[in-house]
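Exercise 4. Each item below gives a protein and its sequence. For each, produce the structure-token representation.

Item: ATP-binding protein (Megasphaera hutchinsoni).
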Amino acid sequence: MNFKETLQSVELILAARDVPLLVGETGIGKTALASYLAKKNDWSLLVIDGNLLKEGEIGGLPTITTYTRLNAAGKSVKETTTTYAIHHTLRAIDEEIANQRTVLLFIDEINRCEHAVQQELMNLILNKEINGYHLHPDVRIIAAMNPSDSYDYETVNMDLAQQNRFVWLYMEPDYAQWLDWAETAGIEPEVREFIATFPDYLNQHHEDDIHATPRSYERISKAYKIYKEKKQTISKSVFFNVIRGNVGKVIAEEFTHFIESDHLPLLTYNDIFEGSPDDTQLQLRIQKESHTRLYLTAKNIFMRLEKDTTTDTPLTAYQIKRIISLLAMYPVDLMIGMMKDMRCNTPHIYHQVLNEESFVNLYFKAYCQV
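Answer:
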């Protein structure tokens, strides 16, 4: 499942008070999904990294305390009992609950910890209790793990009874949704254009080199932003080594060549709306573009229009006409996809163009061709 489908599935599972288990490669966006969900619902997000825990750390080490009781003869006698300290994250949960907050507990790398630690986490996840500590009913839990059948990870498999207590969700990367996210997350335009041009590079494994993941490009974006600001003091070879350390040699070479070459830039808002656009030339340009780059072009333009559009400042008749003209130049399957995307992600401009008969006719004409 892609990010959006996984998110909707998680919301349904949590509403049913069950525990979703996200399964996906490292860097694919499992933690980002938990962060997005917490922010969306105004929940407090707390994270436990299973692979960093040692036995007894989450369950608490035993300590001896003394108490007084009456024996059969009615005399006071001192006894000792074993109690357990609690993990700082569990204490943080209690503090958030005391402040009337709903907590989303994200337990990551559940299959990359020691077997004893895994058993402790299972008690917490499935029984909501560990060594006398009881998890508050208002705590939502999401667990996550790497694929257990991959040779890239050292994993500890769960038994069948444990597996049956989760709702398993297999998460896969989706370049189109990553581009949507990258726009809002402030990923550098050149990085987004690179993925739009080479979508397979978003999540690519190399047998003898570093794997490229969606998380890799977050780091590349930050490094590239600094590099652009300090080109006079940072050499190209140093920058290349940083990129190589994120995605491997092959993609690093492609990326550095991409940003240094005179590659054809994406169509922009100005190309479509400013001056006197030549639709014949635009049509020829669009025919030469890949679906991914066309998708990113439309997304960039629609997002800009959405930000500038309010109830008091609606689209002009000219802007509506140009939107419809742009869509009409797109391949039929992509045009339908962009119309659906407008409905979900840019509702203000969608409802305005929907009032145009030419837009509705364009949709049904395209739908009949699919």
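Check: The chain has a mean pLDDT of 86.
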